[in-house]
Queue: 2 jobs
Job 1
Amino acid sequence: MTPVVEFRNATKEFRGNPAVRDVNITLQKGEVHALLGENGAGKSTLTKVIAGLYSLTSGELLLDGRPIRFEGPAQAMAEGVAMVFQETNLVPSMNVAQNIFLGDEGFFNRLRGINIRAQQHLQRLNFHVEPTALVSTLGAAKKQMVEIARAVHHNARIFIFDEPTATLTPEEKEHFFVLLDRLKTDGASVFFISHALEEALGHADRISVLRDGELIVTDRTKNFSRETIVQAMVGRQLTRELYGVGKSLRKSRPPGEKVLSLENVSMGKAVRSATLSVFSGQVTGLFGLVGAGRTEMMKIAAGVLKRDFFHGGRVRVRGKAVRFRVPRQAVNKGIAYITEDRKYDGLFDTMGIAQNIYLGKLIQGENPVFVTSMSEAKNQAAEWTKALNIRAINENSKVVELSGGNQQKVVIAKSLIQAPSIVIFDEPTRGVDVGAIAEIHKIIEDLADAGAAVVVISSYLPEVLNLSDRILVARQGRIVEELDTDEATEEKIIYAAVH
Amino acid sequence: MSDLSSWIVNMLHRRDAGISVPAMDGVLKPNSRLEDATCILNMPGIDDVVAAGSKLVVSAGSSLLAFPLPFGGGDPETISTFEGAISFLAVLDDGRYAVGVTGKGVYLGVPGSFTLIELAPELSACMMDATQVADGRLAICIGSLRNPANEWKRDLMEKGRSGCLCLLDLDTGSSDIVAEDLAFPYGVAARAEGSVAVAESWRHRIVAINPASKKRTVLLEDLPAYLSRISPALNGGYWLTFLAPRRQLFEFVLREDGFRKEMLETVDSEEWVGPSLSASTRYDHPLQQGAVRQMGILKPWAPSSSYGLVVRCDENMRPVESLHSRADGALHGITGICETDDGVFAVSRGAGKLVRFTGDSAGSAASEVQS
């Protein structure tokens, strides 16, 4: 049977550096094909060639057996290729319906008609999103839904999902996989990129693993296990390093000084009389379901959000009550908040690595800096690039050209350059491959060992359990449980988060 | 004008006494370890405990009682009785006892042979604790110069700041006030470098006061309960005891000057909204409860006015472990503690009990004695 998509000796180079090298891979009709690999392995590059965003440097792309070279995404779309990107590419100032129909507008468009059609389309997909809602007002999970709905709307026969489930809640993930099965039954072919290996093992027909731009292995899913995939991805056994074994061998760090405390802090309905303390020399894990208010609590502590003006409680940093008006004040008190949404809040993606990292330094101090030394910026950026092992094509690379894991490391470097004493990581490993996860975990552990107070907000329980010295559970805007790591289990945490 | 500025400050919620209390989490995470400790003596009025050589000495009312050490259980023996209520108990370096008696002064000596050093009435009315400092003098905490010791709740409600630290020369009987304007200094302990650690109860903090230079340094602050006494731990740290918890309701009452003034003038002290040493058993008083969860919803308010809390700190006064008797427990109002080789003995004045648990001086969690 002729494959729907076939790469023959595909190579894609950026400024002479190969991102994909000599790859041979096929996608059959009605198949879900998982592409796995560390960030920077070449998965996104490969799929972007199919979507018409890049063209191959050498080798061939065949669609239904015929060689093709797309001139742009519009041509790929016309051929039935739809790509759902790793980080949503919606127009935030337009509403959901407008985004779904973007690129498919008629000469005359009736807004009401578009809204009704969008509503019907979303209902068919069982996505609970208001079609008239502005995209900028949606959370990450809902934006992802709109992105998927847009791809389905274009009646594509080849779907490329790049990390589609990274921001979805468990229920939304279930919906997504039902949708995936429906697409498959309808005869669509799917390239599916995910860092959640269980999703690939559970839903893909075939799995291909890429490493450093080369195809390492392609086989039917039943011939893989989690260990063999990870081994193929990173070239060594890593899963046991990441989760499970480390915890039992590691002794919890004793608490140091109480450096940050929230006392009865309230902010609208998102945070309701939240009370917690953070100690130096420890990793404090903060778990909660989506909407539990954990991110908001920490954003209040970091001056990103403001607590209620009246009866909003109190925030203390090293015993002193503070009320930050802007994040800069928190930075000057040694608080660094590393955002969960790196694309929107964390980076200037068209700027270089050095510029982004040095921005963290510029925000410090009481007075704004009018003149910056680019040589100092480059030196400091080089230092941090080396320390955090940020891999880029060259030192002048723009952040947008980096893989998700390396972008995340740039965001971390941007905060760590401030030498903070309180570091808040919000979903530090979301959309990051297993190799980079291990490196980010190491950064977190090293910070706590060096005496910093570290807060890790994570939706991934094994991560919370493995990293934390104490675990706080948030629900309905307040902290409802505190567990020591030796007594904490997934069941206890989930019970506290739900009941 | 001041009323207007006070109203604005209140409205903007910028005042220091905001309606919030520190979290009991981390090291102070609630447990039942104090409640599970072994009760070795039931005696209403029990207040303080010290180890004196081969004896564990307890004060209750006007009597001194002693258990032999090593502790073997049984009933204590009454070793001395005084003419007034005993306000503190301390052991000097030479083995003599220093016993504070309300309205009198300090009795020095050994059982059967005490001599009185009289103190001025305003000082002797509210002596709370004492310890011997490096130069041999006795550092005495005077909780308040305005209210006697048994009126501690009134002093809190009046936002008393009239406490002081007094140094008593044991040879000449002369006294010297080295620190004034303290907010009910309840406990005192000598520190290695020559200063004394003073528990300023109403300011929820511990300050180091150097008797020579009179310099004050805050060692620990922002505590979630009102401190009582401090006692040295065997490993070089300290044991802290706490009289009663801080609650948002109490903080609110302390902020509302008009309400509080009227309450003090017109309401019986038993009915005041404020901390207490033990839960009331009166049918017309609200039940003391912790957080109540019904139908999965945490009910917003069910405060307890009493609580049992003991905290062990390291030598830098950083908390390392805590023992609790929560709202559903009875060992509330802890006012005395003493660590010996036989374990840690703590006095619950609220329950009128002396309890014993073994502390791990090496620093890990203490394990309670199973009777």
Note: Helices of chain B lie at 2-12, 121-124, 152-157, 248-255, 257-266.
Job 2
Amino acid sequence: MSSHRAATVAFDHVTKRYSGTGSGLRGAVEDLCIEVPAGKICVLVGPSGCGKTTSLKMVNRLIEPTSGRILIDGLDAAARDVTELRRSIGYVIQQVGLFPHQTVGENVATVPRLLGWAEDRRRERSDELLTLVGLDPAVQRGRYPSQLSGGERQRVGVARALAADPPLMLMDEPFGAVDPIVRERLQNEFLRLQADLAKTILFVTHDIDEAIKMGDLVAVMEVGGKLAQFGTPDEILANPASDFVARFVGADRGLKRLALTRVEALNLRPAVTARVGDDSSHARQRILTDPFEYLLLVDAGSRPIGWIGRRQVPSSGALTEAMASAMSPLFDRRTTLKDALAMLIDAEVQVGIVVDDRGAVQGLVTADEITAFGRRETFDAGATSG
Amino acid sequence: MIRWDVIQGNLPLIGAKLLEHLALTLVAVVGGLAISGLAVMLIRDRPRIVALVTGFFSVVYTIPSLALLAFLVPLTHLTFLTAEIALVGYTLFILTRNLLAGLASVPRDALEAADGMGYGRTRRLCQVELPLALPLIVAGIRIATVTTIGLVMVTALIGFGGLGQVMLRGYNFRNDTLVLVGFVLTVTLGLIADLGLGWLGRAITPWSRARAG
């Protein structure tokens, strides 16, 4: 659908000062230097008044910097015609800013209209985008914004920003005005879209959880418009550059890191398994030497049935399903460590079973291993070491 | 009491005065709209001047109509211009106030989105601000029109006045029928203008009635 155009963005010693005392610090930006590679989401996050929105608005020149340059694909934004620049950048704001007097279809086609596209091309594009963001064009294109739910409005806002296939999108708290459940759905949908579109996106939020979730890169800013730290979400959670960043990401940053990592990063502990119908005495022999005192009973397809305690394994005869007592939570390789830990805390057995797509046992994970993993300096070492 | 023969005999006069009434009203409202529109476009970004200008218009609005005419006649004599200066003067306060309120009612986020997407100033005004200000602008035109239809009567004192002339003539000649005709036609005109402009306002702002469900 889309040409995979994406731009690089670089803030080159960008400063914005406001005159006046007292409130002069609010929204100011001090010597900001960041580089965002093409196709990445860079989240600007920080407390209110830290200059994150100012930074965003300097990109499409709704605010002009006091000094410094913003380079889009290496070109100074200040040197470009301002309306042409803005039409080439997608813009989504928290209150969405749909035009109340235009239908959904007309709203989505705003920038194509400004660019002078023919009417049927505009309509076609607008229908295509409504479909892309999960709205039915036949139902929605003729409605007015006042007839939409909050979530639908946000979707239309995203569709409108994408209309002219901009290589760069600016999103200012785009999911801030909807309730947490709708927000999470919109975030997930947007990440799925972005996996296809691969736009370069500057994304502003005050919510560190949203920043960690949405960002390939995260720029943490503090009041006064100073960049406190710039890096991947994991780098920021693992090694906060200052007390401010540590406090801002929160005392639960270990847990947040676990939310970023999936079970596949762990070295799985092998399970002692036996199939239904196997000889008990043989199985008993194997479990006697294993420090973990339980035998995992599996079916013919290696799918787990349940645990049999060492003492419950009979000395002779065949193993039956009835012998299995307790069962563990099941994870797959994509389960996040945070979810895995949460399931283990609730489970009767503090060991999780990792299964593959067919449900066959791959290995075991314990809660201790997950928490130990969360304390490591970097996750990469854990993921690659033998 | 009503003498139909009087009405029949005066039909040409009544028709002519009805047209004059309409013309005086139309010129006053259109002229008022042009002046207040121009004024608002020039001063809207300067709050102090806005306060000054609306203050001045509101003072004009409070001058009794007879006093205003008496003040104007020595300057511009018994002319159409005199009548219109007075009539336009009274529309300015209503129209300016509603124009400003209409523009102020445009959601800020819609303006920010328009700027961010690359609307120029003029295009933003014509395609975003004015359409969204329409409900309040039309409401102002409606009030101004109905008010002017009433005020036109007073200009009968300087030889205009539309249907006011019909009433004045009826009064001078002790002819109750003419008084009644002037009265009924004026009220009817006001009602038609009120209902018609109300309908027009709704017709050109379909979005303002669209609600969820």
Note: Chain B has nine helices and no strands.
